[in-house]
Fold this protein.
Amino acid sequence: MPLTPVDTLESASAEREYVWTLNFGPQHPATHTTLRLVLTLDGEKVLNAVPYIGYLHSGFEKLGEHLDFNQYVTIVDRMNYLSPLANEIAWHHAVEKLLGIELTPRCRYLRTILAELMRMHDHLLNL
């Protein structure tokens, strides 16, 4: 501990290495509330990262246990609020495959267009 002004100046000018611990998430906009990282930093260099996952568990499977396949569509919409149609398309594709339903070519290309629009929408929102 410096006692004189000269000692204070000398101790302030000496280089020190600082190691910081930073909690990143789960509320940080870059993590979409799905992840928490405990980062150990030396300046800009990440020395260690400890991930904690599972912050977005919403119990979709449990919600769907007592619903029929058509009622579950409203739950599927909430899985990804940025592109709900992509989730609906995937859900309907799975149900149609299980039931052995063959789609018309028009339905297939309309779904492809909708899925691509949702994908672009998702990416453009993250710019």
Remarks:
- Strands lie at 20-24, 35-42, 45-53.
- DSSP finds five helices and three strands in the chain.
- Residues 5-53 form one domain.
